[in-house]
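Purpose: get a first structural picture of the assembly so the mutagenesis plan has something to point at.
Setup: two entries, given in the order below. No constraints added.
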Amino acid sequence: MNLLPLFFALPLAGAFLIPILSKIWRGFSDLIANSITTILLFLSFYSLNLFEEGEVIIYKMGGWPPPLGITMVYDHLSALIVISIAIVVFAASIFSIRYLEHFTGRVKFYTLFMLITAGMMGVAITGDIFNLFVFVEIASISSYALVAFGIEKEELEAAFKYMVMGEIASLFLLFAIALLYGRASTLNMADLANTLSVAGRDQLFWFVAAILLFSFAIKSALFPFHSWLPDAHPSAPAPVSAILSGIFVKVLGVYALIRLSFNVFGLTPQNSPIFFHILIFLGLVSVFFGGIIASRQRDYKRLLAYSTIAQIGFIMVGIGIGNFWAIAGGLFHILAHAITKSLLFLTSGAVVYATGKRDLEELAGLGKTMGITAWSYRLATLSLSGLPPLVGFFPKLFIIIGACQAKLYWLAILLAILSVFTLAYLLKIIRKVYFTTKEVSTPETPFSMRLSMLFLVILMILFGFGFQGLLNSLIIPATKVLLNGTGYGRAILGG
Amino acid sequence: MFFFITTLILIIIGLYAIVTKTNLIRIIIGFAILEYAINFFFALVGFKKGALAPIITQVDGPKNFVDPIPQALVLTAIVIGLATTALMLSFAIKLYQKHKTFDITKIKELKG
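Result (structure tokens, whole complex):
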């Protein structure tokens, strides 16, 4: 049996069932959402055993053969993204159980939560470009609603701002799809790859590539288009911030961009240097400004949101350098940053749950009373700034190795310095919130919250020590999928 | 060609409204214009002059059909557009209830 449709059908079914069944018993919303995310976590790891390196699993919707019907394609790149989504969503859903005591509308929250999961999973495994648009919209619309979930002045303003930016990106994605369809008369990404590689590159090809770059640069909050992110991500409830910052921008922005540019458009650093130089430039500027603005924030979650902009920049620099190790580092950083940043946002949720405050000047002395939260934050900080045995060290090392191999020594040195700078702004929170001695009587967070934070801490350590296994089973095959270029089309259509 | 230029003009009008207007409702109208323009463009992609509607009435009938796929896709896009417009309007209503104004220059809670 083909497991592929389950990845988005399960959360969609959950989104349908939760509002109905919770009329019978309110506990069903927690139960269904958490059991679906647990199943997704097991399914995502289990599905790795189903296929070898270089193979793909194809699911034909309705039994229509590939160029005609919608296909779902599962290769190692999709597997990497699906595993990252499943980890983050699992931790966030456990965390939500107690965190939502602050909010009314638990049922609506879980419905939107399931829809955003379904949308992201769909983006990761779809093989059809219009289907990609539909899943992007499912995920985006539920994220706008989740950002506005608190229905206060700030949340609504952030959500509206986010929606304006996000919808411009989505509509331009639709425009690019229209242009591509007019050019190639096909929507299947594999067929599109074959058609485009035969047809050659004219102005229309580059026009579409530029529109797609613009659209996904907004979705992934690269520097000139980043303005929505530091408002939207902190305004959402903490588990949703963890999803949005941890994985959402990477699936809708980075993954969609690299899948289309490498596998469908067949761009490589050799045949289109300008495109990749733009990626390096945008990434580097994001790392730089994200870091500088983050160090000046005094809001716990806003600081983390700016840090996300900087870390997405690292991923983009890795992709932009474009040789084997740099891309491997960029892809590894998608997973590493997903775990680490969602952990950081969950600690912010724990602090808000316990104290009700987010301002760094008002928070103090939580290091003693909230031991698990404080240690989770410290370990995540060390991981994100690249301390060796933790998972965050390896991606940055690979990107720097890639930069050296590409003879971009200045870039390698700059990245190493900026990586240390990450530590500087994240330490600000440790210094203000956890390290100060002040008598406070905030209790430690409830068990389920600690459980979800511990789960991410354990993964961070486990993936750090077992990085060799992770590299061989997931990251290197995923990198080969990207470097295979338009061979993606031949692998799916056969011949 | 005339219709393609029309859609491009509409796209520019929509973007202009989104970027320059300060009233929430006008921004949403800008989005509606942009969205309809792109849907119109998409429908035009499948258009052929003098072709028939893509309905097969007899086995060996005329084969000069317009492409039906863009029409199906535009239907999907219109439904998605309905959802986004409805959500955006509900944000505008809630913002009006909180601030008693639609003017975005007066809605400034977030900074930094």
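Chain B has three helices and no strands.
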